[in-house]
Design brief:
Oligomer: heterodimer
Low-confidence stretches of chain A: 1-14, 153-157, 234-296, 314-333, 485-502, 539-670, 778-797, 869-1105
Largest interface: A-B, 69 and 76 residues
Distance between the termini of chain B: 22 Å
Low-confidence stretches of chain B: none
Mean pLDDT of chain B: 77
Number of helices of chain B: 7
Radius of gyration of chain A: 37 Å
Shape of chain B: globular
Strand content of chain A: 5-15%
Order of helices and strands of chain B: HHHHHHH
Mean pLDDT of chain A: 56
Largest sheet of chain B: none
Number of domains of chain B: 1
Number of helices of chain A: 44
Strand content of chain B: under 5%
Chain lengths: 1120, 129
């Protein structure tokens, strides 16, 4: 609308215009107030009125701020009138619908009475009369509404409605165009990124699809607008303006139902019977109506116009095809016409044509015009192209038809099932249907609700029951699918069936070509290039699922070598924070970037809190150095990460907009209201509800789905296992960036949740403050904060700072998540988190399971948490007299096992005088050993089963330390011992650290290195230092343990702890204070690393992958 | 699949020891044949699955993955191209001619190959041992 246009129109009287202006403003404001008031009363119609309020507000602003001549002011007034009309129409429609609802209910009541009477039940006449009266009254109300509108508006209803809708559609069209512009801008941006190699082709395709989607919406809105414009102007046929072509289209509508459709706020509340009755009524009153669509013709060829017309027809027809009610309607365009429309619309899409391998007809046309090709050639190409595309589209069309048919079958199947359940007393009891109905009736009798409300509530009750049954039904279906898959492993024939969907002849010729061309493809450079891509993609996948892959181990090893993980300190002492559910940002294609730049995130000082909800502070003096300890805050919880020191160089382009915000998750709340047996615990019910809300999060989805341990069927993407950490991480990552994965995973985890909730009693248990437990939380920190490298240096053992609840699913007295059964939830989960090696025997798996206790699912964060009862505190000690470089990793592990059980090494080794004493006496006691800090290894073993004590027993340990060592000074490190004990387990899993009391023996560079990742420098007491110092011995000794460790000596565990760094090396041996005797042995041993070691600094490089896998297995097994 | 195990191991080591976060550098892949690249791929796949790699298994998987790639490419071709290539090969067409025909068709050979390899790996790892 023009503003301040004084030239146009007649000269105006300023004062008069001001009065008019004021009047219009007041009228507009009144309408806004009315509408807003009405929205308050009827919030369900807000979507309908919101657009009008927006228009009114814009109009008011425009009138208030603009200067208009008389003619323009008149236009404003006219527009206001239309909006007023719309306002009235909405109110009328609401009233109409309410009256209609009343009418339907009354008819329902009448029918019920009639049925009762027919079946011999006693029915009072007055009830009949009451129902009949209500029917008449409501019908009167409906009629009165119609009459009033007609008199008030003074136009035919259709025209009035069309005018109003037209105004609303215009607004919508503007919004859609803006969306389209955004989509185009986004496409351009992504295209640039793709060209720069920073985004995937798939992203571009998705962006293109968004453009198409907005274009389709615009086209649709434009059609609607044209349609409405024709209606609003009430043009007789043939009176279109120049440049327009009118399309007539027969469609079935129900006259009075039209408004109901527009303002049907109570859809979904009617019960099925009522709907069926309504349908019957509609069929009786169906009339034919001609709608007019104005198609622009100016500047368009006949073909284009026809294509548009066909597309329009197809759209309308397609809508009905989707509805799947073509036969009953009997008014739908025939299918061929619908397909033609679909084809024409597709033909218009040049990119689509190209994707079908059709020549560039535009270019050919130009060539033809230049005389480069003949008209015949062009025409032939044109016709051939159309024919080819038609054939291909026909296949798609037919497939979609089949899918729709399947969907309809499924719906029908459900309806049958639902009706059975409605009659099934057990199902009714589960949902407490009768109880609810009784309560409603009681309310009615007490006069707390009106009869109308009562009847509406009854309908709602049935509808809610339907939702409940639907969920259960879908859950069962998902489980059936899963069970089917369990018993039917993928067959190779299926895997390699590439030619499905082709006709026999087509298949044969392709099979023939496949044979003939095989040799060529072996030499074809583009295939080779593709293979390069494939290997890169594989590396990416592997990177994200490190634990399950050798390559991941190598990368972890490489990282360790670089020092990033050196002297990792795994001590965590923080609460489990709430799991964020709003956004995840990691994307599959940038997995490598994530890993590569994780450390740079810290150094670069990016405001992670603002961007990702993670705060990180560093205290590095040199900007090129990452400090040992990073204090972080993630989702409101203080955490510390010890990451050792690392020289950083290079730049990261990770923090670019294009690599973030792949999608925002929206959490669907699954209906669990009426599921499960929670007995006395409301908290349990709430917990399940909370869990269901969180199952939208790929991290939790993957974790939860791992309980099932079977393949997850990804729509269009095959089946993905989830039986090791690598696979779980991969799925999780894919779920973050791919809707199909996320939806499939959500579906699967949902079915599992239903299985648990439906089959077992849900209980809540408490994990006490101070207890140590494990979860994948640490990984979540990494993912949520987009600091994947934290996965490696943050161990997954945490100490509770407060009591908190966990969900348990009980089968009698037994928690089903903690049953030690092969193939059970626990087995599946422990395999998925890497606690049970992939190639473990059943006996080994059972042994491991017995050592682990699944505590349940945290109500706070949704994580599955478990404790290992000190089992991971098992340490690796050297084997006496081991020799040779080759055997390092494996031998060490073996020796560790042996040592634990026997303590022979301790006694037999002079160097370990302290150790001998400790182990001997400490076995079974634990506490005494810990006092010495560096001697914790022994403690871990001995303390198996006493994890709880170790964790929080810093004070107790101190005392014992003094006793053991007799050295007094070192034994005082109370905190140190406590800390060390807690973390021993974690460290065992991930890497080696020097055991202060264990001598480093010649011939075995790993000797004396022990799994103890828990030395947090800041918190360590004097004895911790000793540990740290010992750890550094390796670094100072070429070919010694640190080098061995840095290479993946302990493969298959991405959380390999780093080797100690020089930072903690104590040149004057002061670090050995913790044990006088050990000190000597330690310092003496280190420089004595034999020449063979130096020559063979890393055993991993020499080990074959097979050996590493074997070693991986053994390493894990040794922990248990 | 190369029979030269030591060469294969050497190649594997190269891949394994890449600095993290880096793409495979050209100099590692540049000298490799398509078969060698696939061999590396297969080898890692077997290891990731945790089964014993044998020459027989390697050969079988290599054959299968090559077969899959071929079929995927043929499957993606428009019908006319299938006819043309069948005909051309029967008439002794050169590699260059075949290459030109496929290039003209516009099918994304690299992507199809990449996708097929990934799918093959996923399927293989998803199968029972």
């Amino acid at each position: 609308m023009d503003k301040g246009n004084f030239e146009a129109g007649q000269p105006i009287d300023i004062n008069e215009n001001d009065d008019k202006k004021q009047e219009l403003i007041e009228r507009t404001q009144k309408n806004i107030d009315d509408a807003q008031e009405f929205i308050k009363e009827h919030p369900e119609i807000e979507p309908d009125l919101a657009a009008m309020v927006k228009k009114l507000t814009e109009l008011e602003d425009s009138i208030e701020n603009g200067n208009f001549d008389e003619a323009e002011m008149k236009k404003n007034e006219n527009f206001l009138e239309k909006l007023e009309m719309f306002n009235k129409e909405v109110k009328r429609s609401v009233a109409f619908n309410e009256a209609q609802e009343r009418n339907e209910r009354a008819r329902g009541e009448w029918n019920r009475l009639e049925n009762d009477a027919k079946s011999g039940k006693k029915v009072l006449d007055e009830d009949f009369e009451k129902a009949e009266a209500e029917i008449h009254e409501s019908e009167d109300a409906m009629r009165a509404n119609d009459e009033r509108v007609k008199s008030e508006i003074g136009k035919t209803e259709d025209v009035a409605t069309a005018e109003i809708d037209k105004a609303a559609t215009e607004g919508k069209l503007g919004e859609l165009r803006a969306k389209n512009a955004e989509a185009i801008a986004e496409y351009n941006k992504i295209e640039a990124l793709v060209n720069a190699g920073q985004a995937k082709e798939e992203d571009l395709v998705a962006a293109e699809e968004r453009i198409r989607e907005t274009e389709r919406e615009i086209a649709k809105a434009q059609f609607e607008l044209n349609d409405l414009a024709a209606k609003a102007e009430d043009k007789p046929e043939g009176e279109n303006t120049e440049g327009e072509l009118e399309v007539e289209n027969a469609e079935s509508i129900e006259e009075s139902g039209e408004k109901k459709e527009r303002f049907s706020f109570f859809d979904g509340y009617e019960d099925k019977d009522a709907k069926d009755a309504e349908k019957d009524d509609k069929q009786k009153t169906v009339i034919k109506k001609i709608t007019k669509v104005v198609v622009p013709t100016e500047g368009r060829t006949q073909e284009e116009i026809q294509a548009t017309i066909n597309a329009y027809k197809a759209r309308r027809a397609g809508k009905k095809v989707e509805g799947g009610d073509s036969e009953s309607d009997g008014e739908m365009l025939d299918e061929e016409s619908a397909f033609n429309g679909y084809f024409e619309e597709s033909w218009e899409d040049r990119d689509l044509r190209r994707s079908f391998g059709i020549p560039n007809l535009d270019a050919m046309k130009e060539q033809m015009e230049k005389g480069e090709i003949s008209e015949e050639e062009y025409n032939k190409a044109y016709e051939d192209g159309r024919e080819k595309m038609r054939d291909l589209l026909r296949k798609t069309w037919d497939r979609n038809k089949e899918i729709n048919a399947e969907r309809r079958d499924k719906d029908e199947e459900f309806e049958t099932y639902f009706e059975e359940q409605w009659k099934n007393q057990e199902a009714r009891d589960q949902y407490r249907v009768d109880k609810h109905l009784e309560e409603l009736k009681a309310k009615l009798e007490r006069g707390e609700i009106s009869r109308g409300e009562y009847e509406k509530a009854i309908v709602e009750e049935k509808e809610n029951f339907r939702k409940y049954i639907r969920d259960r039904w879908e859950g069962q279906k998902a489980l059936e699918e899963r069970d089917t898959k369990k018993t039917e492993p993928i067959k190779k024939e299926e895997r390699f069936s590439f030619f499905d969907g082709y006709e026999k002849e087509e298949t044969e010729k392709r099979m023939s070509l496949s044979e003939k061309i095989k040799g060529f493809f072996g030499r074809y450079n583009r295939v080779r290039k593709g293979a390069e891509k494939g290997i890169s993609g594989w590396r990416r996948a592997v990177l994200t699922g490190v634990a399950g892959s050798i390559l991941g181990v190598f990368l972890a090893g490489a990282a360790t070598t670089s020092g990033v993980f050196a002297n990792t300190n795994n001590k965590q002492d923080f609460n489990i924070p709430n799991q964020p559910t709003v956004e995840t940002t990691a994307t599959g294609d940038v997995a490598e970037d994530l890993v590569a730049s994780a450390d740079s995130e810290i150094r670069l000082g990016v405001d992670l809190n603002e961007t990702y909800g993670v705060q990180v502070e560093t205290e590095a003096e040199d900007e090129n150095e990452i400090p040992d300890v990073v204090k972080g805050k993630t989702y409101g919880e203080e955490v510390e990460f010890n990451i050792g020191a690392k020289e950083w160089s290079g730049e990261s382009d990770y923090f670019s907009e294009a690599k973030h915000g792949k999608h925002d998750l929206t959490a669907p709340v699954y209906d669990i209201d009426n599921r499960g047996n929670y007995e006395k615990s409301e908290l349990a019910r709430q917990g399940v509800e909370g869990l269901s809300e969180r199952l939208d999060d790929p991290i939790l989805q993957a974790q939860f789905a791992s309980l099932g341990g079977t393949d997850i069927q990804i729509d269009g993407g095959g089946a993905y296992g989830i039986s090791n950490l690598g696979q779980m991480n991969y799925l999780e990552l894919m779920a973050q960036c791919d809707d199909n994965y996320r939806e499939s995973l959500a579906k699967y985890s949902k079915s599992l949740m239903y299985e648990l909730v439906d089959k077992y009693d849900v209980q809540v248990d408490t994990v006490k403050r101070g207890e140590v437990h494990h979860s994948l939380y640490a990984m979540n920190i990494a993912d949520d904060g987009e600091m994947p490298r934290l996965k490696y240096f943050v161990d997954d053992e945490v100490t509770s700072k407060e009591d908190y609840e966990v969900l348990k699913f009980m089968d009698g007295d037994e928690s089903v998540l903690d049953q030690n059964e092969i193939g059970g939830y626990k087995y599946n989960f422990l395999k998925a988190v890497g606690r049970i090696p992939e190639n473990a025997t059943d006996d080994e798996a059972i042994t491991i399971m017995k050592k682990v206790k699944i505590l349940g699912i945290s109500l706070k964060c949704g994580q599955i948490i478990w404790e290992e009862g000190g089992t991971t505190h098992v340490v690796v000690k050297q084997k006496q007299n081991t020799s040779g470089v080759e055997g390092t990793g494996t031998e060490n592990e073996d020796s560790g096992t042996e040592n634990e059980g026997t303590g022979q090494e301790d006694t037999g080794t002079e160097n370990e005088g302290t150790g001998t004493e400790d182990t001997g006496s400490e076995i079974g006691t634990g506490t005494e050993n810990e006092g010495t800090g560096t001697e914790n290894e022994g403690t871990g073993t001995e303390n198996e089963g006493t994890g709880t004590e170790n964790e929080g027993t810093g004070t107790e340990n101190e005392g014992t330390g003094t006793e053991d060592e007799g050295t007094g000074v070192e034994g005082t490190g109370e905190e140190t011992t406590g800390t060390e004990n807690e973390n021993t387990g974690s460290e065992n899993e991930t890497g080696d650290e020097y055991d202060g009391k264990t001598p480093v023996l010649p011939g075995n560079p790993d000797d004396g290195w022990n799994v103890n990742p828990n030395d947090t420098p800041e918190e360590e007491g004097p004895k911790s230092e000793a540990g740290g110092e010992n750890g550094n011995v390796g670094d100072n000794t070429p070919g010694s343990s640190s080098e061995n460790i840095s290479i993946p000596v302990t493969p298959a565990n991405p959380e390999n702890p780093p080797a100690p760094t020089d930072d903690h090396y104590d040149d004057d041996n002061s670090g050995w204070k913790g044990s006088g005797q050990s000190e000597e042995s330690g310092t003496q041993d280190v420089p004595e690393t034999p020449p063979e070691n130096k020559a063979n600094p890393g055993s991993a490089g020499e080990n074959t992958d097979e050996e590493q896998i074997k070693k991986d297995h053994e390493d894990i097994m040794n922990r248990f | 699949m190369t029979d030269d195990k030591s060469k294969l191991n050497e190649l594997l080591e190269k891949v394994k020891n890449l600095p993290e976060g880096e793409e495979l550098p050209e100099d590692i892949l540049a000298d490799l044949s398509q078969e060698e690249i696939l061999a590396i791929y297969i080898e890692k796949m077997i290891l990731d699955k945790g089964v014993e790699p044998t020459d027989e298994l390697r050969s079988q998987l290599l054959e299968e993955i090559e077969d899959d790639i071929t079929k995927a490419l043929v499957s993606a071709m428009p019908s006319e191209l299938v006819d043309k290539l069948n005909n051309d090969i029967d008439n002794g067409a050169s590699d260059d001619a075949l290459e030109a025909a496929i290039n003209e068709s516009g099918i994304d050979v690299e992507k199809i190959t990449d996708d097929t390899m990934n799918a093959f790996r996923d399927k293989y790892l998803g199968e029972e041992k």
